[in-house]
Every structure is written in structure tokens, then in C-alpha cells.
Amino acid sequence: MPIILVSGFDAWGDLTANPAWLAVEAAKPVLPAGWELCKVRLPVSWDEALDLLLEAWTEDVAAVLAFGVAPIEGIALEQIAINLTGGEDVDGKLPSNTQVIPNGPAGYWSTLPIELLNEALAHANLPVTNSAHAGTFLCNFLFYQIIHQALWVSPEIPAGFIHLSNLKGECLVDQDALTKTVEVAVEFTAMSRS
After folding, report:
1. Is position 123 annotated as part of the catalytic site?
2. Which UniProt keywords apply (predicted)?
3. Helix (H, G, I), strand (E, B) or coil at 73
4. Does domain 3-193 have CATH number 3.40.630.20?
5. First-to-last C-alpha distance (Å) of the chain
6. How far apart are CA 159 and CA 169, in angstroms?
7. What's the DSSP call for residue 136?
8. Among 20, 31, 161, 188, fewest CB within 10 Å belongs to which?
9. Beta strand residue intervals within the chain, DSSP E
């Protein structure tokens, strides 16, 4: 039975509740017959986030979507994960300017059909853009590791990272719109594999 693995980051910084996890937790996508949804809440921790995701990554995983927040107005589909880290996590760890995977490729492209997913989200009246890359913090770290793992396990697995608004300042979305984003993205990704 195919599984779509969906993650969202937990609270960090001045976010007592992370809008990404709240959206993943609340999402109730309608999946193709036979598909299952596995949701994973990840700490904003260099040492723990990947391990928790990999624990949930069974041989039945057929697609992977990861969500995080950024200071943006809407939704950003990340196109490239870069082999570079930086930024302090919730544990105070700061691995600045190191590689995600030593001597790994400089970058990995998302294996999601970005343009078609963009169209699906826009059709649902969600303010979506394509983003060149996900920065160097844990969002990028996880994105890089997800693509690396997917290519190693099964190159046909659609996998990628989507940034959601942190809902601070001027926003074009609210928490309900972020939940809808997760639902549309999950449904679209599962359908693209069915």
C-alpha cells in the first residue's frame, strides 16, 4: 500500500506553534484508493529532524512532502536543495558553512512536478511562487537529505519542500489557507503517482 510521507517542523524561535506543523496536522486530504498518509512532526534540530523522518520512511513510501515556514507572504515551491548548512537550531547548535553531505552534489533538484503543482495551487486560489532554493537552514538541510534518500531508494519517488508563510507581518494567507495548501499538494502529489 503506497504511503505519502508528509512532515512539518515544530515550534522554534518566537513561534510557540509552527504554522507548518499546524497545517500538516490539520490537513485531511482525499487520497487515491489504497493510499495512506503518514504525518511526522520534526523538531528544528540538526541532530534529530532527519532521524525522525527516516524512522517513518518505510519501503512503502511512494512520495515525500516536507513543509516549513519562512518570512514570506504566501507559499513557495522550492526548486533546488543546496549542499550547505547554516543557522542555529533549538538546541543552540550552529553548523555554519558546512556541507549537508560531505562531497555530495552541490545541489539536488526537487523531483516534484513544480510547474504543474504551482498550477494546481494557483487553481485553488492560493498565492504560490517558485523559489530558487530553500536557504541554508534546516528546511534546506531536510530538503537535500530527502532528495538524496529518494534518489538512493527509488528515483521515481516525487519528493520536495514547500515553504509556507510564518504568518507574520503582511501575509496573503491565514492558517486555513496553509492547511488547504498541504491538502492540495498532498492530493496532487499522490494523484501524480497513481
Report:
1. no
2. Cytoplasm, Hydrolase, Protease, Thiol protease
3. coil
4. yes
5. 12
6. 30
7. S
8. 31
9. 3-9, 36-42, 61-70, 75-82, 107-109, 128-133, 159-165
Question: Among this protein's residues, is 59 annotated catalytic?
Answer: no
Alpha carbons 31 and 58: distance in angstroms, whole number: 18
C-alpha–C-alpha distance, residues 131 and 70, integer Å: 12
Domain ranges of the chain: 3-193
Q: Which residues contact 120 (CB under 8 A, 6 or more apart)?
A: 184, 185, 188
Q: What kind and span of H or E run contains 111?
A: none
Predicted pLDDT at 104: 96
Catalytic residue among 38, 73, 133, 139: 139
Tens-place pLDDT, residues 119-153: 999 999 999 999 999 999 999 999 999 999 999 98
- What pLDDT is attached to residue 12? 84
Cα dihedral angle (91, 81, 38, 8), rounded to 10 degrees?
Answer: 40
Reported as a pLDDT band with limits 50, 70 and 90, residue 194 is confident
